[in-house]
Design goal:
Layout lengths: L24 E2 L10 E2 L5 H18 L1 H6 L12 E4 L5 E5 L2 E3 L4 E7 L2 E7 L3 H14 L5 H7 L20 H17 L8 H9 L5 E3 L6 E2 L8 E7 L5 E7 L3 E8 L8 E7 L4 E3 L2 E2 L5 H8 L8 H37 L9 H7 L1
Helix pairs in contact: 1-5, 3-4, 5-6
Length: about 350
Amino acid sequence: MMDRTRPAICAICDVPITRKNDSREHLILQALGGRRTVSSVICDQCNNTTGHSWDAALAKQLNPLSLFFHISRQDGQPPAQDFPVAGGDTIRITADGLELPNPIITKTPTGTGDAIRVVARTVAEARDILSGLKRKHPEIDVDAVLASGVPTYSYLSNPVMMDLEIGGADAGRSIVKSALSLAVASGIAPSDCDEARRYLASGENACFGYFGAYDLVEGRPGETVVHCVAVASTDSGLLLGYVELFSVYRMVVCLGSNYCGKPVSEAYAVDPVTGHDLDVTVRLRFSRDDLVDIYAYRRIPDDAMQKALAEIIPAAMRRSFEREKAAAIHRAIDEGWRKLDLEPGTMLTLEDKARLG
């Protein structure tokens, strides 16, 4: 816990933290499904500044996974994003599923004029398009066209292509900031986190590297997406951090290289799909030589990401299938009411059932 006998200072800029300038810093980005916040760690100005730069960069790079896993956020939904599809098309993925990135309007000349075909994503969008076309073609009966329209649903025949790489100084500093925030919230003085603060100040010579030689998380729940941040001290004076995002990106951080305070070992983990906290332990027992190898990408096997994804993709696919099955059932029921020209929920007679065939 925080040492309340020591005046709190911002872990980034050293300004004294008061009630007026204190902030609630998320240990894992709220945009990625994090829940837990800490106070008396980062001042409000640094929270806002780093949120709009470092955190925004990391959240943007990880937005494809936020959409794929349908994460649960405390505020809003992951923003929709367009992705290329094998074969040359483009699809938009939203928090509610797939949709066309843009409406499609085609004109085909005929002997008496042009045949106009409109493919819209919603009835409201179709009405707006038809109203615009009516200005040039007054003969269009918008209501009649809408009434004759047929809603259709189709599925992709080719895979969506997502770029899962993360990188850059801004995203890197957001990662290190998570570990630093947990360290300070655990009672460690910001001055003891010299490596982290140096990197956050300059954005150069990153104090972290990717790790995948073995699983550092003990008690990892099976088929569960995991976000995790942890800190631990070592007997050799290292103050280490660990940040894991979407179970796939696993990073070891050197927060400080000359730590001589009380032993510390803290971890926070959350399932971003449900928002539920997870009870895990992170074992950080690295030496200085280990850090050299980690920084040089010598502790991340080529298939590490694929193995991590293989642990969580099947469950995500099952959840997606169940969501789509439920949506298809609801669409079929709604179409049945529409065909029968009945209000939803009306008790069906034998004659109604016969008409449905």
